[in-house]
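Case study 2.
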Amino acid sequence: MNRKKISIIEKILVCSVGIFLTFNGVVGLFSFINTRNYIHTVGVVEELDRRKIVYNPRKIGYKKVMVISYEADNHGTLYATLRSHYPFRKVGDELPLWYDPNEPKNIKLPFSDSISYILSIVIGLLIIYFGIYIVNK
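Prediction:
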């Protein structure tokens, strides 16, 4: 295959990855629009654990999960298990948490979620810029 054709494919892939990351971040931020009626409370990290995931006998992965407890009106203390992307979290940490009064198991961690969506948008835009720079070069 011609080197020029491969470079065009590489440029399209780089721009596609940037567009995907940016789109993912924007959709994530728009998921906060439906949280107007959510109730704000504080959740406490009860457990932190690394869970083993076996994809096949040769490939084993780990994911960090946390169990959060929070008080919901008319429902008492509820627990939720979420994946933890924040490396410095420890047992006993208090986190701002929003929950849906109609479905109290439906929760959002506004700080953690918004940071990941904003980072996705910024990295996606940088990749798009880099892809456009490559195309124009």
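The chain has a mean pLDDT of 82.
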